[in-house]
Amino acid sequence: MSHGLMQLLDPEAIVLGSDASTNEEIIRILAGRLEALGYVKSSYADAVVRREMTIPTGLPLERADNVAVPHTDPEHVLKPGIAMGTLKRPVIFANMEDPDEKLPVGFVFLLAINDKDKQIEALQSVMATIQNPEALDGLRSARTLDDVRAVLG
């Protein structure tokens, strides 16, 4: 099952089974990975957290563990990349379609995109994964990078 997403994910920016208890905490964990790997500026995490408060990114999937795709403006990005996190227990994100609705989120794909063409490619890869319940179930049970590679190709 290949969606090409693995090619956009830095293996060191994958966090499996995080204990994060808030959306801000998981955003900062993943943003910290991207910053340490040279993908984003130090301003990136704060910018993503601020944006999430006004333009939420929770996607309802009719699952107990929905998905969020936080991101921010290209000015905070040094080179394109994606960080991914799975959570031991879902954290609350606001629904992007109805910001008053709170969604339990178990998967976070943090986008660091500074090129419009790359953004479309990244979103298509993320959406292909999100729309595949088997892929999400595989990521839910993934314990190692090899498990993630087996799901995402």
UniProtKB/TrEMBL annotation:
All copies of domain PTS EIIA type-2, residue ranges: 7-153
CDD domains tied to this protein: PTS_IIA_fru (cd00211)
Transport keyword on record: yes
Keywords, sorted A to Z: Sugar transport, Transport
Domain of life: Bacteria
InterPro entries reported in the protein's UniProt record: PTrfase/Anion_transptr, PTS_EIIA_type-2_dom, PTS_SugarTrans_NitroReg
Keyword presence, RNA-binding: no
Coiled-coil regions listed: none
Identification of the protein by name: PTS sugar transporter subunit IIA
